[in-house]
Amino acid sequence: MSSELLAPLDLAFWHLESTDHPLHLGALAHFGPPPTTAGNAPADLLGLLARRAAAVPRLRMRVRDVLFPVGGAAWSADPDFDVRRHVREITLPGTDFPAETARLAAELMERPIDRGLPPWEMYLLSGAPDGSFAVLVKLHHALADGMRAVAIGAGIFDEIAAGRRPAGRTRPVPPRSWLPGPGRLLGIARDRLGDLGRAVEVGASVVGSSVARAGHLDPHPTGPLAADSSGTRRIATATLSLDRVHRIRRTTGGTANDVLLALVAGALRRWFDGRGLPLPGADPRALVPVSRRRPGAPAGPGNSLSGYLLDLPVTEPDPASRLAAVRTAMDRNKAAGPFRGAGAVALLADQLHPLAHRFGAPLAAGAARLLFDLLVTQVPLPRSALSLGGAPLRALFPMAPLARGQSLAVAMSPYGGRVHIGLVADGAAVPDLDALAAALTAELDLLDPLDLPEATACT
Predict the structure, then answer these.
(1) Which of 311, 309, 310, 316 minimizes the C-alpha distance to 279?
(2) The domains spanning 4-163 and 190-447 adopt the same CATH topology
(3) Superfamily of domain 190-447
(4) Which residues contact 157 (CB under 8 A, 6 or more apart)?
(5) In the sheet that 387-388 helps form, which strands lie side by side, from edge to edge?
(6) What is the pLDDT of residues 322-356, one digit of tens each?
(7) Is the pLDDT of residue 258 over 80?
(8) What SS3 state is found at 308?
(9) Is the CB of residue 228 less than 8 Å from the CB of residue 221?
(10) What are the extents of the domains in the chain?
């Protein structure tokens, strides 16, 4: 794989990271016991995992500075790549394997990835009495967004690896002039003007939204959703019935994602109450990432993100009204599109020079809090059944990175008739993360049996 410049948004993520605030995303996958045949022991899972990961070209790439453009960086093949530096096995006591994996995953997610190597790690977590196991995957956010992470990580599964074509010989590309022709030059200019126009519009919206929120923000946050980074992480998981989520959707209209966002809002309200805290004076604002990749198009390298801003109706006491408020707000966001509004702030990265990302990262690191209070994202998974070494995938809990100054991120993945939810929190600010996970289940129980009026139209 040849050298490839980091896209502007990838470069921004690369420079936003610090030692005490790592910026990687991840997934904790739980598998059933691998099968045994003819009395033989199960396959060498660590060796299998290492071979599968080493066969993914993107995982052999590291980041290196370049002379041009000034301040830029590029992906290049690591000449000393050794998969054993990235794939390791940890054996747990196995007395409470799910809880043990969550605790260990939190410890491992605290640790920054070695920036001198390809920026990823995988851990095989074994020790369950029944032979089941888990795999923790860590990918730097510069390497992938959620959809790209799925495309990269899927290479470890039996079904994906079996269909992978062996790499053929690279054919030489005929030399051509680096100067674009007149038609291409006109197209580049037209696209650039359109991008600049959108950037100006988004920038104005970002400034307006930031100024409006800055007036009521404490410069020294102490609330449960805002905290100075402690460098620690806590992870909790929840599993919801996808059938129940769709039953609510069919009754009320909107989308399954609307229902899940409303459940997050209700769980936060329940969590505030359980802590004995007053409700916030204003509803917390969530950034809901939106992929800019076209449906059906292959997932290209790096990040391709925009986002919607959504005020989660935590102060609304009625569950049905919370769901209606979420549906109305998301409909309004979708009507405007992912290239409009302050939530599309990621688009501004494309307009900045690499030097701006390199030197402006310390200033921009805390700016997220001026726009939103927490991240709530949905990561799609393949619908077909997946396995590793013949062991069936039971659950996959995605884990999103925390923005600086924030203490909670929520990621959700539907798979196998369930919605698997991964909660990542600052360990010092949110020591009771398990209570929030339990609140999600309680909110589904509350919303599902409600006698809600049939919607006139469902999507």
Answers:
(1) 316
(2) yes
(3) Nonribosomal peptide synthetase, condensation domain (3.30.559.30)
(4) 52, 386, 387, 388, 393
(5) 87-91, 120-126, 133-140, 24-31, 391-399, 387-388
(6) 999 999 999 998 888 766 665 555 555 565 667 66
(7) yes
(8) strand
(9) yes
(10) 4-163, 190-447
H runs (alpha helix) in 111-176: 146-153, 158-163
- Closest-CA residue to 53 (of 174, 153, 128): 153
Segment 238-264 shows an average pLDDT of 95
Burial degree of 261 (CB within 10 A; 0-12, 13-18, 19+):
buried
pLDDT over threshold 70, residue 142: yes
**Interatomic CA distance for residues 377 and 289, integer angstroms:** 6
Tokens of 113: 């990835």
Contact present, 71 and 353 (Cβ < 8 Å): yes
Inter-CA distances, 156 with 59, 62, 87, 145, 149, Å = 12, 20, 12, 18, 12
Tokens for 328, please give them: 């109305």
Distances from the Cα of 312 to the Cα of 191, 287, 329, 369, 408, angstroms: 35, 10, 9, 15, 14
Q: Average pLDDT over the chain, rounded to whole?
A: 80
Query: Where residue 455 falls among pLDDT bands split at 50, 70, 90?
Result: very low
Q: Distance (Å, rounded) from C-alpha 59 to C-alpha 52? A: 10
CB of 150 within 8 A of CB of 379?
A: yes
Architecture in CATH for domain 4-163 = 2-Layer Sandwich (3.30)
Is residue 63 within 8 Å of 57, Cβ to Cβ? no
At 374, the amino acid letter reads L
Per the document, the length of the chain is: 459
Nearest in space to 160 (alpha carbons), one of 378, 393, 2? 393
3-state secondary structure of 194: helix
Cβ atoms of 75 and 61 within 8 Å: the answer is yes
Give the angle 58-52-150 at the CA atoms, nearest 5°.
Answer: 55
pLDDT score of 336: 82
**Which residue's structure tokens are 């209700």?**
266
